[in-house]
Amino acid sequence: MNDEILDALLAGFPLPSLAIDRTERIIAANIEALTLINQQARGQNYVTMLRQPALLDAIETTLTDGMARSTQYLSNDGAQDTAFRVSCRAVQGLGRDMAGVVLVSFEDITDKEQAGQMRRDFVANVSHELRTPLTALMGFIETLRGPARNDPEAGARFLDIMQNEAERMNRLVGDLMSLNRVEGDERVRPTQSVVLNDILNSTLHTLQPLAREADVTFETEFPEIPVAMIADGDQLKQVFTNIIMNAIKYGGSGGRVTLQMTESAREPVLRAPGVRVQIIDYGAGIDPIHLPRLTERFYRADDHRSRALGGTGLGLAIVKHIINRHRGRLRVESELGKGTTFTVILPIQEGL
Ligand SMILES: Nc1ncnc2c1ncn2[C@@H]1O[C@H](COP(=O)(O)OP(=O)(O)OP(=O)(O)O)[C@@H](O)[C@H]1O
Ligand SMILES: [Mg+2]
Fold first, then answer.
1. What is the pLDDT of residues 307-336, one digit of tens each?
2. Which one of 164, 210, 250, 279 would you pick to mutate in the ligand 1 pocket, going by the greatest count of ligand atoms within 8 A of its CB?
3. How far is the C-alpha of 25 from the C-alpha of 62, rounded, in Å?
4. How far does the centroid of ligand 2 lie from the alpha carbon of residue 300, in Å?
5. What is d(CA 139, CA 216) in angstroms, rounded to the nearest whole number?
6. What pTM was estimated for this model as a whole?
7. How far is the centre of ligand 2, averaged over its atoms, from the C-alpha of 112 (Å)?
8. Is the C-beta atom of 95 inside 6 A of ligand 1?
């Protein structure tokens, strides 16, 4: 079989693939492989074209011993790295003098790698978050047993702190479980029919004591006609609770939090009927560099302040998953010193 036939065969193959014969030349390659390696790779020596030691080793040994092997290849298109699992297999009876070739094919495993990395990061983050209060608890237990044994006043104070730390751990575990549940049913469409005005009013009612404590008043601008939709009522209440609680905790210095709801027959972002709920605070705002990552688990714009206020950094991650489940969108705009606006955009089913 000549090189053209081999080329034609590789062209029918979806993965980037090339063939190297005993003369160490790339004798055939498909477009995917040329795009990945070099448009001029055909006919060239593979060593000058591939350049990554692990892959060169694998090809060389497979050329010599005929055994299949796989290795990794990293490519960078200037913007991002792509990781490939490369398989090298000897094929007999092809190439110069029919002495056999090595068929090299590249499988993009970036997504799998990223998923693995995310899982490892997550476990590391959770451990870190749990360890901080746990270390504090252990320290105080030791102090209560030792130096503070006969000091009831200090003892009472330490017990207060210990209770705070234990509550933080409890909140963290609760939020993790809630995040887990939300992620689990992200692909299941909600089926309840709910009235958004009622959900918002009940959320505000629940948060009223917290707002009063922080000297924050709520202002509402809702449409006269209640907005009905298919959704998961408890989950939407969680969305608005988390966002409004943040507005009170981090934006409360503005003294008020405004809630606006607007319904539209054609919401431009969704290209369908939808409703926008805006939660506006007039507090310190968020530096724009934080905005793209705000909904990541454990991401805090102001780490110190968030922890001091008992935050777990999971609130907005939960919000994002619930909004995804509802096929909605979340927008955040903020200006330092002026305040922050969270916009929740949800689709409304026609004919309700
Ligand atoms: N309205 C706001 N104004 C200023 N910063 C905010 C606002 N809302 C959120 N942030 C910032 O975004 C971060 C992430 O918020 P998120 O709700 O996910 O976590 P958290 O409030 O720290 O913890 P949790 O909500 O789980 O108790 C917060 O730590 C805070 O720094
Ligand atoms: Mg929060």
1. 777 788 999 999 999 999 999 999 999 999
2. 250
3. 14
4. 9
5. 37
6. 0.74
7. 30
8. no
